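Two proteins were folded this term; both appear here.
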Amino acid sequence: MNIFTVIILAAILVDFVLEIVSNRLNLKALSKELPDEFDGVYDEETYAKSQEYTRVQTKFGFITGTFDLILLLVFWFAGGFNWLDQWARGFDFGVIVTGLIFIGVLIIAKTIISLPFSIYSTFVIEERFGFNKTTPKTFVMDRVKGLLLSVVIGAPLLAGIIAFFEYGGTWAWVYAWLVVTAFSLVMQYIAPTWIMPIFNKFEPLEDEELREAIENYADKVDFPLQEIYVMDGSKRSSKSNAFFTGFGKNKRIALFDTLIENHTKEELVAVLAHEIGHYKKKHIIKNMGISILQTGIMFALLSIFLQVPALFDAFYMDQMSVYAGLLFFGMLYSPIETILGIAMQKLSRSHEYEADHFASTTIQNSEEMVNVLKKLSKDNLSNLTPHPFYVFLNYSHPPVLKRIQAIRNIS
């Protein structure tokens, strides 16, 4: 084993162990006693169901994670990457097409292998707990559409990155960085109008009373509201959500139809206030800026490691290539990515507190935010008592009890 083999293998195993430890602690933190804050919201049966949902999801995650780990290690140490590379080179299509074949086959194979797990998760686990609304047709079409988008959008971008690092010389990483940044900005702009509607229907909010309440609030906080859409989230799940996406004239606030069905007008205004809070606090721009910076650093490091033969030796490769290097560097970069991911989760949690604060201080009654959080927790069977270490590793939102406490402190 060379040094890169040791680093990558250690990173994979440490990440796996951390997940096991955090999941174990999280399960131990499940409390049989319903938190006082949720008296009258959960009944005994629903609370027990929420805890069982956490247990089942954790067990299923361990099974899938273990399977993925074993599959990767067997493929890696059996020389699978080199075999696939030699097979792809056999078509003699040139480096860019060969790279697309190499990476494309890996993606397709991973998708096919994980398909039974996706089916089980959707049609067994989610069905068991009353969430699944996905039909087999919708399930299949989602995957077909995703594959087509990968071919139409992802393949040209990947081809461009390979071309830059193959022919761009010393400044290839800068060219790739600029192109990927431009691509990300364009996608932010066109996704709400052209891509998201491929998967879901977005219709203008028709409830005049609710629309008027939302528009009045938007005027109050000086938010340039273009349109409010209702998304057919019930097409796939009974879970509720709302989100803000896009920028410029394509900003879009979307409410799941399930959210509208389960909440009062005042609560829905509170939900929108939270989403507008993200905009007013410039969270989207901040996250985009951090992402662009991270991409630049990653490409700069990639340009260095693509020239290191030992990285390719770690995967038993006979020949070096940009496309294989992209994959191998991604695995080498994973410890840094894990650390950055934890930092970004922490930042995201602070953003959620800020958005809650904005909403609570701009709506008529901050208790409506509390009511929303309680109902969403119940409807989504959220874990009310997650372990702090599990939150530290995995949560992009603070635990609901901490959010409620923060809102009460504002009041």
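Next, the second protein.
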Amino acid sequence: MAVKISPLHCLDVSGPIPAHLARSNIEETLRTAILDGRLPCGTAIRQEALATLFGVSRMPVREALRQLEAQGLLHVVQYKGAVVAPLIADDSLQTYELRLLLEAQAIRLSVPLLTEEDLEAADGHIEALEVETDFGKIGLLNRQFHQALYCKAPNKKLLALVEAGLIEEERFLRFNLEHMNLGKLAQDDHRALLRHARARNVEMCIAELEQHLQRGVNAITQYLKSQKPKQP
């Protein structure tokens, strides 16, 4: 009789975790595994199995799963518990519309306050993206580039919402780059965003951001069309 392998066997867990770091450690470990595809869509994530694996109580596990649900990476399904969310949800296009509103406001608040150090950090992420080939690391660098431009916005709740949107995008960004060859276009957009930020041209930054996010909308639309069953 074949032994059923737990879907959590792919997680890298080393040694006991200090109690105060348990929630963040579990959240980051699961997020990384979801984003890089080790935990594919539809995988059920059992609280008790996670608690045993990490050697913790269920409380930090529940908190980590709530955070991942808020980031759109997990869904809670009746009788199954937490399940890895689909690559593209029914409301993904609405998510991009919301991202434009939130990130445009972050640009308005942040760009006038950016320091040369912030701009150099953004430029460094672009340079790192030029040579990185690991799609998981590319997603992180993309998020860090955008956050470098938004970091001076004083509204912390706004920045938390922006970060959640960027994290939600990472899985589909990987799909875009791997299957649709959008890497160069994204880099061109990043360089234009940084150029306008250096010039403190907020409105041009927002216009460039809109074009940048529209590429994501187009890719999602194309993906959803490809998933529709063909008419006989």
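The first strand starts at residue 44 and ends at 45. The mean pLDDT is 85. These notes refer to the second protein only.
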